[in-house]
Amino acid sequence: MSRQRATERDLRGTMRGFATGIAIATTFADTDGGRRHDAVTVNSLTSVSLNPPLVSLCFGRESRFLADLLESKVWAASILDGGASYLARRFAQERDSRTTSLSALGATAGEHTGALVLDAPAWLECVLQAAHDIGDHTMVVGEVVAAGTRPDGTRLVFLHGAFHVLDNPNSRQGDLT
Q1: What is the dihedral of CA 62, 142, 94, 154, to 10 degrees?
Q2: What are phi and psi of 169, to 5 degrees?
Q3: What is the pLDDT of residues 127-136, one digit of tens each?
């Protein structure tokens, strides 16, 4: 069987069938005018290590959010519930639109990082440990310095180019433990 090298289109088509969770990542930049917060929708949040507790995110190299994160060296990730698809869409827009939306959002500065934490079913505060340029993206790895979770409710996932609600995430059916 002859195999050809995968293209961007091949990868995108294949990964559309891989369900991922949705989170809002936040960071900030300290400017002469004060602290400027930013938030962006992500579905690249990955657990990397349990000891020490590490997670990663990936951003396009030209991302202004990434530039702020690399400067502040901190971020938070708030994992969205099933009713938050409007937030996911809102923070998937350009920075100017995100900034306007962020000012109207109920969020508090994380106690350990100062990055905004949303009222969400789960959240993490992270301190940058490493950044790696890989292909056309930069992967940031952060140590989780604080985390919280609420086991109730639904979760938002991304599959086949659309948002979907995962009902009853606490169901033990099919549990791997």
Answers
A1: 150
A2: -65, -10
A3: 999 999 999 9
